[in-house]
Design a protein that fits this description.
The protein has 198 residues and is an alpha+beta fold. It contains nine helices and five strands, in the order ααααββααααββαβ.
Length: 198
């Protein structure tokens, strides 16, 4: 079986909204054929998850996590379409895991769109100066900076962060996987993290 490139996995994720691991599995099962992998995901119900994200999620719960030393804690609002889903074990487990992840990983923003434009421009300016100081070719700067900004999002934005229990998945992948499983939209609405002395 041919090696499956990250670009192919990304294309499948972009086209279906499915999680990275589900895309890798689908491509493995179909010999790397994207069209067959899309069919595979449809049969599994994962491709439907992206479409559900447009539906209103106005129910849900607030979850909390406090570290055993009682010095770090987190709150997260997780929304669902119905109270029925908000009461399920899977939904409650996801809320708890995200709250624990927030306490451990200390995200600053929910998603990339939440990062203030001035902060983004400041980061880009710092990266550009670093690259110029390193003697990187001017015609490659924008491409390198784009990669560094992606990494910046992965460290500062909750939904883009690699999940603390499985670095191959992002927090947004966990959400999409549960959407696919239960058939309702789920939204991480907001969060707060508290640390003694901060």
């Amino acid at each position: 079986m041919p090696e499956i490139s990250a670009d192919v996995v990304k294309e499948l994720r972009d086209r279906t909204g499915s999680g990275m691991m589900d895309c890798k599995t689908a491509l493995s099962e179909t010999g790397g054929n994207i069209e067959k992998a899309i069919d595979y995901l449809r049969e599994k119900g994962l491709a439907k998850a992206a479409k559900k994200s447009a539906r209103t999620a106005s129910d849900g719960r607030v979850f909390h996590y406090v570290h055993t030393n009682f010095k770090i804690g987190a709150l997260v609002e997780l929304n669902s379409e119905t109270d029925f889903v908000a009461k399920t074990d899977e939904f409650n487990l996801l809320g708890h895991e995200i709250a624990m992840h927030i306490a451990a990983a200390n995200p600053l923003y929910l998603k990339p769109e939440d990062v203030p434009e001035e902060e983004l421009e400041r980061e880009k300016a710092i990266y550009r100066q670093q690259l110029l100081d390193e003697g990187k070719p001017a015609n490659r700067l924008d491409q390198i900076i784009e990669g560094k900004i992606k990494k910046f999002y992965e460290t500062t934005c909750l939904l883009e962060q690699p999940y603390i229990r499985d670095q191959d998945k992002k927090i947004k992948d966990l959400v999409v996987e549960l959407i696919a499983k239960i058939g309702e939209n789920i939204v991480v609405r907001r969060f707060a993290r508290f640390m003694i002395g901060e």
